[in-house]
Fold:
Amino acid sequence: MAARYPTADGQYHWTAILAPKAMSLVVSLASFSIITITCLAVAEPKQSSDYVWHEFINDTGWSPDALVFLIGLINPAFGFSGLDAAIHLAEDCFDPARTVPRAICYSLGVGFITALFFTVSMLYCITDIHAALDSRTGVPIYEIWSQATGSGAAATIFMALMTLAGFITAIGSVQTSSRLTWSFARDDALVFSKHIKRMGDRLGVPVWALLFNAFWLFVIGCIFLVSTSGELSQARSPHPQWVMLSVLAFTVFIGTAMVTELISFAFPAALLMWRGRASAYLPKNSLFNLGKAGWLVNSLVVGWTFVALVIFSMPVVQPVTAETMNYTSVVLGIMTVLSTINWFVYASKHYQGPNVILLVDD
Structure:
């Protein structure tokens, strides 16, 4: 679909990811290389291959282990959330019908190889897994780096490198999310669309869309800060209360992000199958026309979305309490209510469908 409908709206207009910025890629790969090589070279003693490849540690209270494995997939899945983060600049790139799907393939390939190698390497370098999980910093990977290098300073440098890469990535995320909001407003699908869709005269960017997104980020941040400050003084468990709440908030955020992203991919995949994968909706002369294999790919996307909707909404530990509950389903419910209100108050009267559909000749 990316080869057929490359527009700024991403899945909303059946498109896909744009290649990441070169600087972000260089910083990410450089950080990956420095951290991985250093840890493997310095860490002594290393864990055995039996520990890395065969031992399964389940302290969650859930059973069987297969269910725990599925719940744990939310972390590696989050690593590929960038497939949606940079989608929405497709209209700004050259030859998007080819650039966009190639970027998807390159991102998946590089991401899978580096993530697998990094994860396996860190498992060999772990000294005490429980110390990493119970770290007062609330960042297990920092403790793992400290154990591997025997130096808090080295772990801090590694964290600075990851923070730099994350900062660069955040710039792209802000840019692309504002483009997505702007594209919805361009189609008159949001309350205050006439303001949100305005482009800055001097800057040439959707300033109001940026401010709209920033407002909701501020609201979410305030909710997290209030919940943390209200419980911080009541810590009685071996884990600092703020660490537990941080983990809870992080789980909610990434769970919601992954579920909504999967749903956004599942809808066009399901509709494409409902249309019988007609040639009118597929690239004609392209390597990205999967032919009959496309039925399998689309089916896997829709099927996995249903599975993920359940497992990514499950609490990560038992027994389930107010502190360990996974509130992803609650957030999804609130989003559904807000979307319904937006539809009846504004969109049902103004939204007429996408204002732009790019049909690219193969």
Summary: The first helix runs from residue 22 to 42. Confidence is low (pLDDT under 50) at residues 10-20, 230-239. Residues 40 and 125 are 7 Å apart (CA to CA). The radius of gyration is 22 Å.
